[in-house]
TrEMBL record:
Enzyme Commission number(s) from the entry: 2.5.1.7
SUPFAM superfamilies associated with the record: EPT/RTPC-like (SSF55205)
Major localization class: cytoplasm
Residues annotated as domain Enolpyruvate transferase: 51-462
Name of the protein in question: UDP-N-acetylglucosamine 1-carboxyvinyltransferase
UniProt record, GO biological process: cell division; cell wall organization; regulation of cell shape; UDP-N-acetylgalactosamine biosynthetic process
Classification via Pfam families: EPSP_synthase
UniProt cross-references to NCBIfam families, sorted A to Z: murA, PRK09369.1
């Protein structure tokens, strides 16, 4: 099998100039932080315990994409004939379990088989209102509004839940559905949607003010079973959007332009069941790439789709990592330097694909705390995605925030030390695991269920690579002021 050194192609959105820096923001390290102990109101039962520092080696298998599996599961509701949809590569995640419960609450017959296979029979759907409690637990639960109103002409769906990483309004969903001749009303915490003609949706044109992934996917599903042609402009271009389009086309839909800013959908009266395999999770792959870098180790991973990781490859390569593609779906990441040099800091700004993914921002910020020099981070997707900074600071990370921007300082070596921290959301939890592996001593991370929402057996995979990590379940107890 041939091997080659990966040199990522030039990409304007990835090879960004230094993000714009507020005048008050400089690359001069701040004075030592004085952190006051904080009292939490709740003690979580599942904790991850990490003894560091870790050195990793070996191979890790990347799971199917969470952000593809959830909309594809929802899209199976569009399939009203031709047998069940057989979905492969579905990751074993708590969010997937919740989505399955949402589909079952609508009347779908679902079988979960070994090896990541989920069989969805949606022919006998008997309800257009899913379980509100389940929808409220994950934002992806809101995806079902598209298939339901497209197929049945009506839907009643609770407003979505998910990680608390800033406001994620549903106005694009609402305006997009109205462009397909739907009447949309919000009453008592639920979205009531029905076709204005009393029969079904009608194709239309809609321009996204912002290329929202969720809104693009929801309208693609609805338009696939609408009457007529729908044109979506400034649509999201993420690989997960393309994967959803592949599933819908395999089910009989007509979609052109998925993966570009203009998507054209010709509605079909009915879609049918099919067999489909989910793409590998690029965010999990990126997290393991950072794991190799932050522990100054060398690991390989598969399956991956390298061009989905262009920005990640660019940044890690510029820092000093060696990334080699071996075969079409295997990457080797090495942060071990024979010359003894260390990783250099870098700047990045999150933005929609093909730009740097916001879901990897916390992990890369943890890495910057161990690099040589200062790196500037600008978060442009979610305004509330800096909650992990305070927890990283508890581990000794030198990070200063200014609104949605931050500067992280390092001296080329890990100055992190173990502490008790809390995972405030899914990707924040992943950043703490990475930092814990680079820290001296023991790190205890509360809130492990957040991590379980998006990483399949993360601690097991890391343990097999050599990390000293385990899970503990502790009894709930009250916390006092």
């Amino acid at each position: 099998m041939s091997s080659m050194l990966l040199v990522a192609p030039s990409l304007a959105l990835c090879n960004l100039q230094n993000p714009k820096l507020p005048k008050s923001l400089s690359k001069t390290p701040p004075p030592p932080l004085s952190l006051k102990p904080q009292t939490t109101l709740q003690t979580l039962s599942h904790h991850l315990i990490i003894s560091g520092p870790s050195h990793l080696s070996g191979h890790v298998r990347i799971s199917g994409s969470k952000n593809s599996a959830l909309p594809v599961l929802a899209a199976a509701l569009c399939c009203s004939e031709g047998g069940p949809s057989i979905l492969r590569g579905i990751p074993d995640l708590s969010d997937v379990t919740t989505m399955i419960s949402i589909l079952r609450s609508l009347g779908a017959q679902i079988e979960v088989e070994d090896g990541g296979v989920v069989v969805v029979d949606a022919e006998g759907i008997g309800s257009v209102e899913p379980c509100s409690d389940s929808v409220g637990r994950i934002r992806a639960g809101f995806f079902v509004v598209g298939p339901l109103v497209g197929r049945f002409g009506e839907a009643v769906v609770a407003l979505p839940g998910g990680c608390e990483i800033g406001s994620r309004p549903i106005d694009l969903y609402v305006r997009g559905l109205r462009a397909l001749s739907a009447v949309v009303e919000v009453r008592h915490g639920k979205l009531h949607v029905y076709a204005a003609n009393g029969k079904g949706l009608i194709g239309g044109r809609f321009h996204f003010d912002y290329p929202s992934v969720g809104a693009t996917e929801t309208l693609m599903m609805a338009a696939s079973v609408a009457n007529g042609v729908t044109v979506l402009t400034n649509a999201a271009q993420e690989p997960e959007v393309t994967d959803l389009a592949r599933f819908l086309v395999a089910s009989g839909a007509s979609i052109e332009g998925a993966g570009t800013s203009t998507v054209i959908i010709s509605g079909r009266k009915k879609l049918h069941g099919t067999e489909f395999t989910i793409i590998p999770d690029r965010i999990e792959a990126g997290t393991f790439m950072v794991a190799a870098a932050i522990t100054r180790s060398c690991i390989s991973m598969s399956p991956v789709i390298p061009h989905h990781l262009t920005c990640v490859i660019n940044k890690l390569s510029s820092s000093g990592c060696k990334i080699t593609q071996r075969g079409s779906h295997l990457l080797e990441v090495s942060a071990i330097s024979a010359a003894g040099s260390n990783l250099e800091a870098f700047d990045f700004k999150t933005c929609p694909y093909p730009g740097f993914p916001t879901d990897l921002q916390p992990q890369f910020m943890a890495l910057l705390a161990t690099c040589n020099g200062a790196g500037i981070v600008e978060e442009s997707v979610f305004e509330g995605r800096m909650r992990h900074v305070g927890e990283l600071q508890k581990l000794g990370a030198k990070i200063e925030t200014f609104g949605n921007s931050a500067v992280a300082w390092g001296n080329g070596q890990s100055a992190l030390s173990g502490s008790h921290v809390v995972a405030t959301d899914l990707r924040a939890g992943a950043s703490l695991v990475l930092a814990g592996m680079a820290a001296q001593g023991t790190t205890e991370i509360a809130g492990a269920p957040h991590i379980d929402r998006g990483y399949e057996k993360l601690e097991v995979k890391l343990h097999l690579l050599g990390a000293n990590i385990r899970r503990e379940q502790q009894a709930l107890s009250k916390a006092f002021k």
